[in-house]
Design brief:
The complex is a heterodimer of chains A (106) and B (536).
Chain A: E1 8-9, E2 22-33, E3 36-41, E4 46-50, E5 60-69, E6 72-82, H1 87-98, H2 102-105
Parallel strand pairs in A: 1-2, 4-6
Antiparallel strand pairs in A: 2-3, 2-5, 3-4, 5-6
Chain B: E1 100-108, E2 112-116, E3 119-129, E4 135-141, H1 142-148, E5 157-167, E6 179-191, H2 209-212, E7 220-230, E8 234-237, E9 243-252, E10 257-264, H3 266-280, E11 286-295, E12 301-303, E13 309-312, H4 317-330, E14 336-337, H5 355-360, E15 370-381, E16 387-390, E17 394-395, E18 398-399, E19 405-407, E20 411-414, E21 419-421, E22 425-428, E23 430-435, E24 440-445, H6 447-454, H7 458-467, H8 471-480, E25 485-497, E26 500-512, H9 515-527
Parallel strand pairs in B: 4-6, 10-12, 10-14, 24-26
Antiparallel strand pairs in B: 1-3, 1-5, 2-3, 3-4, 5-6, 7-9, 7-11, 8-9, 9-10, 11-12, 11-13, 15-23, 15-25, 16-22, 17-18, 19-20, 20-21, 23-24, 25-26
The chains are: A alpha/beta (106), B alpha+beta (536).
């Protein structure tokens, strides 16, 4: 994986700002197939993540990869985040990381 | 009685009738006609013809306790001996002039002997209450004690006059009066045999138990409550080496709070014993306490002092109200004790500080301790003296926990409970160093906090180190507990150690960090200082 640039923290709404670039996000898995996972972003959007998810998959998973378009990511790295996760905290993080505190992240 | 002034001059122009009446009372001024003294220039009065020399006038000797003399306008004006008017106690002051008060004795102190630079002495005091509700303390020294000690009885009404008024000693005298009466050799104390219904027997100003929580340490107050528990009397060794008795009771009132009342000395055997019997037979008596002393050692409690008075089931409206409350549900309402150390503020108003803020902001230096929360990591645990041998016996509803000493072979003795037993309890007294991103500090953790930090009981650790002497395992456990991060609830208070003031930090509670809540807290901290930003 290309580690030269940091992955931007995104939720569903912020994904469009980074199309073609490296992003990271946490989704709540709604459907899991071979080759792709459907999940709900921390701001309630439906996202598609392509790649090979780990097995087994917990409810929440973090994916790091490249944003293909405003609602899909091609993931290179998957990390199980367990079955309980505070989505609102993460969402606030994403907003700060792309807003007031962008200079701290990218 | 002796004549103090054998001769003296006449002042002014006393008008004397010619002729005189025989006086039955030999203490009356004698009826000699007078001649003006050499100083007076007034020649209105004629001297009796045959007298060539000025007659000297014998002063009257007024014995105390005699009925007031019959006053006629003859004889010199010596002192105005008319009975002083009865005035309210509240009007007494040193500039008053002649005064008399009529009041009931509400308390009589013990006769106390003392020895100072001027020699031996004795003193006793009693408290008075009059029909206006005014109260004042009266004190007698030495010879005056002999005159009045046996005369004064609690509950009786007396007419008192000719004492001196001095500022009240607030350390001992809790009555609401800035003055105190000191009786002297010429003071008068007369028993009033007729029962004066206008003078109450006692005056109380009861405070609800919930108000005691905010009362000042060492202040005196009155309280009334239902006795819900009585503990047995235990002998206590006082600091001066003397032994006394102590009993702990719990009182509950309609404020929803309960308070611990400590009886000392005779109170244990008299009222304490009576209350014990009443409670043991299923009763819940009302107890009124007059002049109990507030103690803030553990939360707030009340203790008796020598001038305290206890009244079991008194016949006063507050007692009746309390009984009515108790019988109609008060009995079953749970009450919170103000005599347990409570942490002020729950999780709602926690104050978060960093470790250097404790020093920089001078926390713990005011009268009351400061309570803060700090997120920090355990970096060092002192393994010498990490626990102490504690008394496992119950005192009321709490474990005694006082440090016990070894007595004989394999037995332990507790000074407070005055009992020996085989098995003692082990409780943590941990010195721990904690650190955060700003700095580090030493804190002391007691039992519950210690168990959270070490993850096992003090007894287990004690046995491991001293009985099994397994230093390896002991060391492993200690090391495994380092570098864990917690939210520490700290009590910070400056205390005197020898002759220097040191800030002592005690861990009251240890909580594992809840990451979700902590993140929210941090997000809040980050965003609240943004200028002109909407909060998320």
């Amino acid at each position: 994986m290309d580690t030269s640039s940091p992955a931007a923290f995104v939720n569903g709404g912020l994904l469009r700002m980074h199309v073609g670039r490296k992003v990271r996000t946490v989704i709540q898995v709604t459907r899991s197939d071979a080759g792709s996972v459907m999940g709900k972003s921390t701001d309630g959007c439906q996202l598609v993540v392509r790649g090979s998810p780990p097995a087994p998959l917990t409810s929440y998973v973090e994916v790091i990869g490249v944003a293909e378009n405003e609602n899909s990511i091609r993931a290179e790295l998957w990390t199980n985040f367990g079955d309980s996760f505070d989505a609102s905290n993460y969402d606030q993080l994403c907003q700060l990381a792309n807003g007031e505190l962008k200079h701290l992240f990218l | 009685m002796e004549t103090i002034i054998p001769e003296y001059e006449i002042i002014g122009n006393p008008k004397l009738p010619t002729g005189s009446e025989p006086e039955a009372n030999k203490s009356m001024p004698n009826n000699n006609l007078l001649e003006p003294s050499t100083r007076s220039t007034n020649n209105r009065y004629s001297a009796p013809a045959p007298a060539n020399k000025a007659q000297s006038f014998q002063p009257t000797i007024q014995p105390a306790y005699q009925p007031p003399p019959n006053y006629k306008i003859q004889g010199p004006i010596m002192k105005n001996e008319a009975p002083a008017r009865i005035i309210p106690i509240a009007a007494l002051n040193p500039y008053q002039g002649r005064w008399a008060i009529k009041a009931r004795v509400t308390a009589k102190g013990d006769l106390r002997r003392y020895n100072n630079a001027r020699g031996d002495g004795k003193v006793f005091s009693f408290d008075l209450l009059d029909s206006d509700g005014g109260e004042i303390r009266v004190t007698c020294f030495n010879a005056v004690v002999d005159r009045f000690y046996n005369v004064i009885e609690v509950g009786k009404v007396y007419l008192i006059s000719k004492g001196s008024l001095k500022p009240a000693q607030k350390n001992f005298n809790h009555l609401k009066n800035e003055w105190e009466i000191f009786l002297e050799s010429n003071s008068t104390v007369e028993l009033c045999p007729d029962e004066d219904g206008s003078i109450p027997r006692q005056q109380f100003s009861f405070r609800p138990i919930t108000e005691i929580e905010s009362a000042e340490n060492n202040s005196l107050l009155d309280v009334i409550g239902i006795v819900i528990s009585v503990n047995p009397s235990v002998p206590i060794l006082r600091k001066n080496g003397m032994e006394t008795q102590r009993r702990i009771l719990n009182l509950k009132d309609a404020s929803g709070k309960s308070v611990e009342l400590t009886l000392w000395g005779d109170f244990c055997n008299k009222e304490g014993q009576k209350l014990q019997e009443m409670v043991d037979s299923g009763l819940f008596p009302v107890l009124a306490v007059k002049a109990g002393k507030v103690n803030d050692f553990n939360g707030k409690s009340v203790g008796t002092i020598s001038s305290t008075q206890l009244f079991i089931d008194p016949d006063c409206p507050e007692a009746q109200g309390l009984r009515a409350w108790f019988e109609s549900g008060g009995r079953n309402t749970a009450s919170i004790s103000i005599s347990k150390e409570l942490m002020p503020g729950g999780s709602k108003n926690e104050i978060r500080k960093t470790l250097t803020q404790i020093k920089d902001e001078g926390l713990g230096r005011s009268d009351k301790p400061d309570w803060v929360t700090a997120k920090a990591t355990v970096v060092f645990i002192k393994t010498d003296n990490f626990c102490y041998t504690a008394c496992p016996l119950m005192v009321g509803d709490r474990q005694c926990n006082k440090k016990v000493t070894q007595s004989g072979n394999k037995r332990w003795l507790c000074d407070r409970c005055n009992q020996e037993f085989e098995e003692c309890d082990y409780r943590y007294l941990l010195q721990v160093q904690i650190e955060d991103h700003t700095g580090l500090t030493w804190v002391t953790a007691f039992q519950e906090a210690g168990e959270e930090i070490l993850g096992c009981s003090a007894k287990e650790m004690y046995l491991l180190k001293y009985e099994l002497q397994d230093d390896t395992r002991f060391g492993e456990i200690i090391r495994s507990r380092l570098f864990h991060q917690y939210l520490f609830r700290l009590k910070i208070k400056e205390e005197l150690y020898g002759d220097e003031q040191r800030v002592k930090i005690t861990v009251v509670k240890v909580d594992k960090v809840n990451y979700s809540a902590e993140s929210r807290y941090l997000l809040d901290m980050v965003t609240k200082n943004f200028p002109n930003r909407k909060q998320f």
